[in-house]
Amino acid sequence: MNVERHINEDFIVEYIRSLYPPKNDLFQEMEELARAEDIPIIEPETAKLLQLLLKLHRPKRILEIGTAIGYSAIVMMDALKGETNIYTIERDPRMIRYAKDFFAHSGYTGFHLLEGDAKDIMQELSMEYDFIFMDAAKAQYQNFFALGSYLLSKGGLIVSDNVLFRGMVASGELVERRKITIVKRLRKYLFDITQREGYSTSVIPIGDGVAVTLKEKE
Questions:
Q1: CA 217, CA 202: separation in Å to the nearest integer?
Q2: How close are the terminal C-alpha atoms of the chain, in Å?
């Protein structure tokens, strides 16, 4: 099992989480599965940020890169009370089976599960999306962003999760040897998106680090 390491002080994380109301049975079931099988899902603070952004932005079409068991997709769908369509990409057959089952039990019908490698699938997509959520292979974020930027509508948002990667991206003292490549690529990714012309990005130190990028209209 991976040991959870927060980028913020544990007492702050615990306090913030104590403020949130209890989750429904489906989310509790998904969280228990994730813990039991060591499957990464978004942290509670990230889920709340996603829901707030979605309620403000009201996207009609969402693209998610990295479905896993479907937790974040259901979080997003629930925030919009089913009034959106979520196209979510996953290549792991075991995750696909879990996600299909949870989607079926969620009570929502707007899920579109795209099975296969994200880079291959994204190159074949032609629709515009108002909101893109990236939570897949961190070392590929630059590639995903490059493809996603062409699919994103003007005024749309790209939200990238885990961009501080347990604090390693911000501090060389925390970097594990086997994670050096991922950390280097995430640092380059964050530098590029914060400097990119025509986009505005905020890097937010909650959860495992979240970057919110706006594609400007002008």
A1: 17
A2: 46
State the Cα–Cα distance between residues 10 and 112, nearest whole angstrom.
36
Contact 213, 199 (CB under 8 A): yes
Dist. CA 67–CA 135, nearest whole Å: 8
Q: Which residues contact 203 (CB under 8 A, 6 or more apart)?
A: 163, 164, 190, 194, 209, 210, 211
C-alpha to C-alpha distance for 12 and 21, rounded to whole angstroms: 17
- Name the DSSP letter for residue 62: E
Per the CB < 8 A criterion, the answer to whether 85 and 62 are in contact is yes
For 73, counting Cβ atoms within 10 Å of its Cβ (0-12 exposed, 13-18 middle, 19+ buried), the class is buried
Nearest-10 Cα torsion for 134, 144, 218, 199:
70
Per-residue pLDDT of 177-218, as tens digits, reads 999 999 999 999 999 999 999 999 999 999 999 999 999 987
Q: Encode 40-72: b = buried (16+ Cβ within 10 Å), e = exposed.
A: ebbbbbbbbbbeebbeeeebebbbbbbbbbbbb
Distance CA 2, CA 185 (A): 22
| CA–CA gap between residue 81 and residue 76 (Å, rounded) | 9
The Cα 56–Cα 190 span in angstroms is 24
Q: Please state, in angstroms and rounded to a whole number, the distance separating the CA atoms of residues 166 and 6.
A: 6
Q: What is the pLDDT of residues 154-176, one digit of tens each?
A: 999 999 999 999 999 999 889 99
CA distance 23 to 38: 20
